[in-house]
Every structure is written in structure tokens, then in C-alpha cells.
Amino acid sequence: xxSVTQPDxxxxxxxxxxxxxxxxxxxxxxxxxxxxxQSPGQGLQLLLKYFSGDTLVQGIKGFExxxxxxxxSFNLRKPSVHWSDAAEYFCVSASGGSYIPTxxxxxxxxxxx
Amino acid sequence: KAGVTQTPRYLIKTRxxxxxxxxSPISGHRSVxxxxQTPGQGLQFLFEYFSxxxxxxxxxxxRFSGRQFSNSRSEMNVSTLELGDSALYLCASSLEGANxxxxxxxxxxxxxx
Lengths: 113, 113
Known about the structure:
heterodimer; A: six-stranded mixed β-sheet; globular; B: mainly beta; seven-stranded mixed β-sheet
């Protein structure tokens, strides 16, 4: 069965600092990978997705993610965090043959002024 | 274009009652999925409908059911409500399924008292 691990429950950064949120997936083949962001009391918004090809993926709001097959990782990065980035971030995988996504438990990002 | 619309936004029900939640997907999207989100369990997949057929089902009791209409609008129903059903219920639509990425609605906050 697929699994997605986000090892950090909370991350605190200062505004303007760089950010990296970690994600590891467990699946035999290369899955479809996504990062979503959720603001309090709201639904999830798709930041970026990886299917194949270039392992560095650009998303919205200045986010990017890098797929590393050797490490089974899909880490999310942003060079300079803004206070409005404070939210919950979810890493998600889906396999080619399944229509059921697997969600990580989420990482809560706290941004200090 | 319009996003995913969920109604109602908030709902308070009494234990033992039943509830129906509604979801209108993005025009052209044929896949609609439902999720339950709680602080303790995170995001849990309920079921997915594609072209009016339930294609996948999560591990929830039979009290949770759903359906999809010919215009892709979907409803989920929970009968005999329990206190533990209090959660944010999220609907998500996609062109074909998880591999394409989802667009989420803002959710329905259900409180069972």
C-alpha cells in the first residue's frame, strides 16, 4: 500500500527566510505527486504537481518542489517566506492505477514577523 | 471559471439525525471525491464518483453514502449521526481522477451535538 510521510508536524520560520518541507513516499513505481496548501477553515489548494519529466517542478505562489527518486522524496521549497504562507501543507501521492490519493498528515507552517 | 461549491458551509445537527451535504464540481469535471477531515485522523477518503458511478470507497461505515447526478453534482448523506461525525467534509473535483490533481471546495463544517 502507498504511504506518504511528512516528518515535520510543525515548522517555524521567520518572514523572509527560506523554507523546505519534507515529504517521503512509499510506492514501487513513480507515483503522481502533489503539494496542497490549506488555510484555516478552508479547502485545499493545489500548489504544484509532478507526473514525469523535469524533476524540479514550479508551482504557484513562488513554490517549487524537487522529485528525487533515489530518496523517494518530493520536498517543497520556497526561497523567501511571506507571512501569508502560514498554513497547513499536505503532500499527496496517487498511483497510475488507483484513483484514491494518499495524503500525508500535513505540516503546519508558522511564520514569525 | 467557478470553483467547487459546497453547501451548506456550516451545519449543526443532533445525534441520531441524518444530514445531506451538496457539492457542485467545476464544469467539465467528471470525478467527485469526498473527504472527512478531523484533527485526530487528518484527511480520510470517503468515496469517489465518476460519471454517476461510485468508483472507489474508503473505510467508512454504511451510514456514509453518496451519489452523483448526471450533471456531475454530488451529494453525500450521513444517517444516524454520532458525535464522532463532527468534522470538516471536503469535496474535490477532477477531470478524470486523482492523477490529474483535485480542486477542493471550502468544505462543510458539521457539528453533531
